[in-house]
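Chain and conformation:
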Amino acid sequence: MKYPIFGILSLVLACQLEAPAQAVKSGKPTSSKAATHKKTEQPDTPPAATVGVVVPSWLPPTHSVKPAATILYDLLDTKLDVRFDWNKQWLLGTAVLTVRPHFYPQNQLLLDAKGFEVKSVKLLNGNKEKNLNYTYDKKKLTINLDRAYSRTEPCQVRIQYVAKPNELEAGGSAAITQDKGLYFVNPLGTDKTKPRQIWTQGETEGSSCWFPTIDKPNQRMTQEISLTVEGTLKTLSNGLLVGSKKNSDGTRTDTWKQSLPHAPYLAMLAVGNFAVVSDTWRGKSVEYYVDPQYSSTAKAVFGNTPEMLDFFSKKLGVDFPWEKYAQVAVHDFVSGAMENTTAVTFEQSLVQFTARELPDVGYDAESTVAHELFHHWFGDYVTSESWANLPLNESFADYSELLWAEHKYGADAAALVQQEKMGRYLEEAQSKREPLIRYQYAQNEDMFDRHSYDKGGRVLHMLRKYVGDEAFFTALNRYLTQNKFSASEIAKLRIAFEETTGEDLMWFFDQWFMKRGHPELKVTHSFANGQVSLRVQQLQDSTFTPIYRLPVGVTVWANNQPTEHRIVITRADQTFRLPSSQRPALVKFDSDAQLLAEIEEERSQEELLYQFSHARNYLQKYEAIDRLRTKGADLAVSSMLRAALNDNFWAVRQTAVEALRRYKGPEGESVRKELQRVAASDKKSQVRATALTTLSAFTNENYSSLYLTALNDSSYKVVGAAIQALAKTPTADSQEKITALQETKSQEVLSAISAYFSLNGSSTEQYQWFLRRLPDVSEADLYRSYLPNFATFMLRIPPIEREKGIQKLESLARNAPNSIVRLGAYRGLSILATGMPTIKTVMQDIRSKEKDEQVKAYYALMQ
């Protein structure tokens, strides 16, 4: 699974920072064998602290241990026959489950079944059937079998039921916003902006909201699902379509069968008016299900899937094992994307784009496609036995994004992925530090965080760099082959690497997977008597975080020649002596940028300039630019920045553009001309947009003609940046030109227009525009910009005219299903609250009735 947003506070912080999302602080590129086995259960208590020790704010409370589920039965096969009541939003189903006692004899079968109306439960024995007694509490279905069954005796039960997901108690999390398993989108067809659809989301335990099962990740089943739908609709499920029958009532029954076993949370169905774009890989069907209007651009988004299938199969030495591969875009998905076996689900806004939007998409959509595909090895083929071991799924899927970028686009693109993900983890680590593998957590979905994803991927990168590529991928092949179609835990991964390399790797797995935190390093160096003295200090709080063993590379540049050194840091304060024939021009610690660490590395301006000119990767160039951006007035530094504007890699050019913001050095006129050139003609839309934003910071200069020209750019991102620039320096005709764009379908442009109107508008038409376009704005953009901009706009109109807008903000702040939208509306109310005591009273009442802990934490920050 991949998520666009990890938690409310992460988004809040991201919106409050001025730096771009990819920017990471300079220098922060961003043990016994039993340690990888389960711990004994402990009560919920805060960690004991030594007297006088300050417990850091990022240390979470200790929760009870969540062990892997005890296996009483093996779930062998599930057959479902389902149809739908669109009006009531019900699923009418018959489930036939084949189970077998795992080891001990059993006379009762306990199933997860949430919010059902159970019609009957019968035992099947050949052509005979027998009613069984059962009890049901709306969560668990307890079936009394006719006798005790041994582990050699499978038994089969048939359950007729009605699933009523909308009658379940509302739940969800920051990662997966709802947990009712089965979702009807626009079921009555009253919303003309959305298609009618049905889809499911099983992770973590949502499958039992639409069929009875043993809803645990350490179960595996084959399955067959028959879907009866209106004849005009298409269906999708796991496995192959093995039958399609037209019925006399105008409906159609499609039967999908998966013959290879997978975990119940990976079962799925989707129903809708999809266009199906076909592809193939080694004779297997590869299909993309999209809204019909996006059929012409589907291959531009998904079209690298066959190449990914080939690349990952060869890299892992395990061919993609499943019967087919389909990807479907659905509306209102409760997360980013989900790796359902052979049938991945995506939130449509992540993968459906017009031809004009495609240039702005960048690597994000493609990385999500790679991420979910890689899960078909790590997550589907081999599955984490418990949510405590979730990084065995998500760390690998996260790392696949770097592997694909490296393969398809080169080392610089992979380094950019590394940087962005490092930054995301370090951002989360400001307020939360957990072990990667953790058996103590409050809820299953607490595991879906930047630790399991971004930190885990970076740990795998270090492991790859330590053992080498051949050993890394050989070990992964061993792990997949030995554990195929089974549940796994972290010890099995460690053993696969130890058996491959012959080395005891407990030290690595213990410090990176089983302990919290990361190294915080201070690195200094000096030169004397033909030696470089390199001092490395580990400054992290060793009361709660280990002193790390860190194999790392150091490059010493002398006489324009690099000399590579491998050192192993093992102590809190350590000095290494490295030979050098003369005083080095540069000593670069962690020259491959592999360490997951915060690094404060001492270097002079001359060394950083040398680093840029001799850099062998994007991150070294980025770091030099970032560290020297405050010294742009220096002629040597400004020359470096101007050179960077012509770099082959777009992210270097973008970083240089950002560094020249408000430049006041000796080359002012030349720099601004260069920025205008970049804004008008750089081949990358992200760089053109950034250049417009940078130029708008030169408040004493007038670039309105450039901004107005950019309103016609082929990129929505550039158009949005031009509107934002014009919002600060409007011209006589800018409002007319921007008003002509106000019916845009682009989120980027829509948010930018809201910013323009918030600073320059006051008309009734603009007021109505804000209200009318509200449903068209993404949830994240409602928080980030649209609702605060609407509130700022209302400050420009008479108080008597604000009532409808205030009511809308209050309604959203109280009732919006998504917490991000509630926060955005609350931000809007806070903008309007000055001088309006009634709004302050409303806000106090909203705070008192909010139930989401993360939202309440945000409110506390605003007090």
Observations:
- DSSP finds 28 helices and 29 strands in the chain.
- The first helix runs from residue 8 to 16.
- The two ends are 35 Å apart (CA to CA).
- Residues 82 and 93 are 4 Å apart (CA to CA).
